[in-house]
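Narrative of activities, Objective 1.

The group set out to show that a structural description can be obtained from nothing but a protein's sequence at a throughput compatible with the screening campaign. Below is one input-output pair from the validation batch, recorded exactly as produced.
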Amino acid sequence: MRDYDRAIAEYNEAIRLDPKNAAALGGRCSAWTNKNELNRALTDCNAAIAIDPKYAPPYSTRCYIMYGKRDYDRAMADCDQAIRLDPKYAVAYANRGYVLLRGKRDYDRALADLNEAIRLDPKFPNAYQSRGLLWADKRDYDRAIVEHTEAIRLDPKYVYPYADRCWALYNKKEFDRALKDCDQAISVDPKLAYVFVRRGLIWVEQRDFDRAIADYTQAIRIDPN
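Output recorded for this entry:
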């Protein structure tokens, strides 16, 4: 798992030394976002933008925050602004692509943005991960597996490609390979309830109902909702 707590501690010190450090506020905003603490993230992104309205990264991160709050129009507006300010900022294209994919269900525009993110930064694992989700939505699981595999190659500690390659393999009925990926995802981040649900589905297919029940129980324990 990426060490967001350590990153936050380092940004805290930078902000203590210079409270108007827009880059540090933007970085802490991103770290809070990755910890899913969206309100704290939003406060930092707003502060960074107020200090330097021409600095693209906080707009891109706020785009993702607004996606998390299901305000897709505001999310799009922020990513659009990030791209206007920095047309070569791969993260903004990837974030806008994700909003288009998951929020707007506009697959053609999402694919165009994700392709552009990868063109600008061929070593950006998140863009491959999102493109894998797009192919899975289209039930092209072979392409999804290729994308998730590349994301893993670029960042072996990035949990989501393991979880989603597991799902693509499950849909191809490659249950042994799917199980290994879900196991790996859980070893990287044991707090993702949906991965336990997916592994439970694999156990059901393998007729191991006791293990399936154990995984479903753990998923409910993590996320009772």
